[in-house]
Amino acid sequence: MKVLINRENCIGCGVCEALCPEVFEIDEDGFSKIKEPYRKGGPERGEVGEHLKGCVEEASSSCPVSVITVED
Questions:
Q1: Could you please report the per-residue DSSP string of 1-12?
Q2: 41 Ramachandran zone, left/alpha/beta (phi>0; psi -120 to 50)
Q3: CA distances from 16 to 29, 52 (A)
Q4: 36-52 confidence digits (pLDDT tens)
Q5: How far apart are CA 29 and CA 43, in angstroms?
């Protein structure tokens, strides 16, 4: 499953990190990024396995500015 964060519009609220800390973290600039083990091509792009689907989808649907996109 692919995960994409629109970091330009991220407000750094930390909801994604709170709901899915295995995949998301807030960086030193205050924006969400994909953690290194799941990163593919940059801090805003990642790929996760089926075992993380639930928390990634919850983080995406709970983001107050809708900057997390999930694709199967």
A1: -EEEE-TTT---
A2: left
A3: 16, 13
A4: 999 999 999 999 999 99
A5: 12
